[in-house]
Amino acid sequence: MTTGRLVSLVGLVLIATALLFAVAVISLLPGWRLDLTEDRLFTLAPATRDIVSNLETPVELTFFYSDSATEDVPQIRTYATRVQELLGEIVIASNDRLSLTMIDPEPFSEDEDLANRFGIQPVPVTQGGEAIYFGLVAAQQLPEGAPETLRISETMPLIRPDQEPFLEYEFVKLISQAANPERTVVALLTELDVDGGFDPGTQQMLQPWFVMDVIRQLYEVRRISEFDESIDEDVDIVMLVHPRDLSDQMLYAIDQHIMRGGEAIVFLDPNADSLVTRSPQGVLVPAGMSSDLPGLLEAWGVEYDSSKVLADSNLALRVSMGQGSRPEPHLGMLGIQRANLDGDDIITSRLETINVSSAGVISRAEGAETLFEPLMQSSANSMLMGAALIQDITEPSLLFDEFEPTAESYTLAARISGVVNSAFPDGHPEEEEEETAVVDEEDAESDAETTADDEVEADAESVAAQDEGADAEEAETSEEEIVPHIAQSAEPVSILLFADTDLMSDRMWVQVAQFLGQRIPQPFANNGDMIINALDNLAGGANLASIRSRGAYSRSFDRVIEIQRRADDRLREEEAELLARLADTEAEVARLSQNEEGGPLEQIAPEIDRFNQEMIDTRRRLRDVQFQLTEDIERLGANLQWLNTLLVPVLLSAFALGAHLLRTRRRRIRYWDTH
Q1: pLDDT tens digits, residue range 356-369?
Q2: What one-character-per-residue DSSP string does 563-575 give?
Q3: What CATH homologous superfamily does 38-179 map to?
């Protein structure tokens, strides 16, 4: 064996050894990933890794996918591959807290029965085609020998393609719900009749707002009062709807709830239409009340003026102010469209319209350290008006007389996140002494009235002494049980802030009909969807709330779009001219083909033959123009095809040839050096 062959053999052995070593390393280190995509499509959010790696209970993921039934549907198969890849990344990041099983439910099989038992139903992909299963189940992993009835599971019946940007969020949310099945506790503070009540004007009972029916089905709702001085520690979310004149004690309780990691969703309003009542004479009585959270908003880095209402000409809804009146645009009642909603936030991403009424605006305070992310914004054709003006208006057209747009977009709702400082840097506020003064005054009156009866007075003094002793003992106990003050949140908080309360009321988004004692909703806006999305988002904690949309896998062909736009601009004018000439020619032929009475001519005039020929030529030129609209695109596609077919092999061949020539040259140099 020559020296050259021996060297080549050793080289091949070394290359094979290196490849085997690389395969072994890759298989032993499955967590190593290199994501070179522009939008980091295959990189999980840090919050996702944190959630799945710290699950207290292991969770089994079962992906039901009709693989055999989608062999002829490449779009579904491609999407299914993306879903499996994402689930695989999540499982790898879980540190063995998750497991993944894929099941192809064949017709009339036990797997199909299992899918149906979990609530996953087949859906048709094409008309007349076979229905497929495409869903995910997350279930707690049971210890060996435990009965199946104890298994707690959550199901995503259908993984829709339009969910692709938020698949990571939806999967992690499903896993979190399966691992923590306890219902989220929502503490509700409001003076509005969200749970129904009595209308003194109409002397009728008011139905609960429909959104509250939905919330109570999904969450454990506890009513708290503005007179309470604390919030239970097992409360997950505080929901404030039109908070007014809250005591320092309640403001402090809300502050400390957020400091210890609790979530909050707040609905403020400079003019709550829901508080407007109708007198027995039928006259509207405006409430004249706005809501605010003094001190807390400043601590959260938010500016809000409770005396200003947003007016927007582009988003104004057409409303009727009375029976029989003509609908006309109202600058204070707005329909926030999809273009004005944040498409990257799970709360508003798939919504179309949110209706609001006399809404306020919020903004990021100068120097704020929190992150301020707008969820709903006005158009640039808007301005701020006095709340009193909107409140007293009876003719919407009069608002246009005062309308002077500022060319600025305002924020109606936002997500506030980050580490925040307490609004009470000095700790728990001091108790108010009004109650003590009232008690002293009542004691003085009681002493004056009982001076004639010594025995009663002695008994009263004895009871008072016992009460004072009990109060002292209670005071000592309460001092011992005082929770330490938290000056700064240990983790980033998540607060959702809306500058309108009317968006929750039925009149702004849903018509509720009664059928066999059941309330049947007929929504005409997405207000309810947004509120439930917001609560779902907060229920997952700050980690889940921080997960945003992923980039799109399907990329647009920018070059193709640019070519199409230029072709349209260049040829559309010529096409329009030819169409106009063709219409004129056809009209002239029709005129020449009829006699004075409107009947057909027995003999065709020579001019008709000329016009017919001109019409044929015009149609041919029109087809040529329309063909040219796609010719450049087809040429680009052909060039790319040739590029992919020839350029890569040519480059590889050139590289191999260059390497061979370089190696040959080095051999010749070594040969001549040795000889």
Answers
A1: 999 999 999 999 99
A2: HHHHHHHHHHHHH
A3: Glutaredoxin (3.40.30.10)
